[in-house]
Structure of IgGFc-binding protein N-terminal domain-containing protein:
Amino acid sequence: MPLTVAVLSADLILLKLIFTMFALQQRKLDLLETKLENAQEINDTKPQETVNLKILTDLAQLHQKLADIEKRNEETENLNNLTFSHLQKQIDDFTEQGFYEYAVIFTEQYSKSDTEPVLYIHGHDNGNVKIESNSFNSNMSITKGKNKIILNKEAFLRDGIKNKGIHITSTVRITVYVFQTSTSSSDGYLAIPIRYMSTKYIVSSFTVWEHRSHAKSFVGIVSLGVNTNVKVELKMRQGTFIYGKIMNIYMSAFQTLQLSHNYDLSGSVISSSKPIGVVSGNMCNCVTISGCSHFTEMMLPIDQLDNEFIIPIIQTRQKSTVRHLSSGKVHIDVHLKDRHYDTNLNKGEHHDLIHNDITVVLSTGNLLVTVFPHETDRYDSYMMTVYGINQYKFDYNFIIPSNFSSFVSITICGDAIRGFEIDGHGMKVDKVFEKTVLGKKYITFSSSITEGAHRIKNTIGIRFGLWLYGNRKIDGYGYPAGIAFREKEG
């Protein structure tokens, strides 16, 4: 049975009552011990033959009460241990939920010849994985840690409806990263488990450089169920989408749809009668310097968005453009490193800011936030989702892809950096930036990291955000390491 918030709350209330009872019993025990000592002192100061019979009777009763209390204390301690053990198991079961099944897609690639579709699967234990698609079907064993699976290039989408959804199921908990690797146009995304896919999304992409067709924006959709009615409301600042403002499409299970245009599709809204997955970005775009980099991210559903963000430091990139998209009317407070301003957004609108080092964003409503690091002479840009502080975790298992100079960036709310370990060792911190807003301290820091499977955790339970990214000559990639997804109501 899925663990619910109500069950967790009930267990916590039970624990609180047990601790209260234990405290009262301990207080009574202390009082009885004091009485016993006083009685013993009286007993010792009188001759044995004149000991008051009532004192002896009281002493016997006190000893019996002490024995009873000690027995109850032992039972309470056992109950505490059982309750903690039970609650911890429930928490473990809760965190395990939803990470056994995924549906993913590979959107259209720019370079048809040298781009490979790759799945990086982090196994939390040894187990078996089944991958089903129209171009790749396999049952395979996976090991704890890094597993790299190269698929057939037939997995890549083109515009239109296809049967190219990829269904992944596992006997053990897994984290999946979908990666397009190319000599100069790589990027990837953190896959969202099917359990947390939903029926309403707002889309982020980026301004199409000079409206070039190969830099086009795209939206990719994968359906999870039969007879799924998908409504697509594509938005462009320059006008209405050529096929009409609203499109209604019926899709079968694991069927896919890709739409693209040489104008920015940010702010488009996708809704459906049953849960779907949505991927968006640009095929071969750039931010400030003419080039070609693939932008892709799996969109968080609207019910997984947040309203408080720390934009992480991006090593090797002095500046980034951060895009904020709203699914409703909101007021946003932006706290940059050296200044503050505010702005308003209506449904489907976006606001871009230039970020360096640290930025804190507070909103009256939930936002979808994506970051696009600016190019340098050596490195291209990429697209990376920034999730909110209410979805931070205290323990991440993840994979760094091969053949990149890679980094991790961490964000936390707190007074100091403490308790961080990587692969069981103290974590080295390269750069640290802080910002205090309304008396609350926000921190971001970064560190270089090698390729392969890793684990970063906080040993004292501090929750933090974690992003993975890297560079190589005229290329780059970036995405979140993981997210504490919200459980659906009902």
Observations:
- The first strand starts at residue 101 and ends at 104.
- The mean pLDDT is 85.
- The longest helix spans residues 53-96.
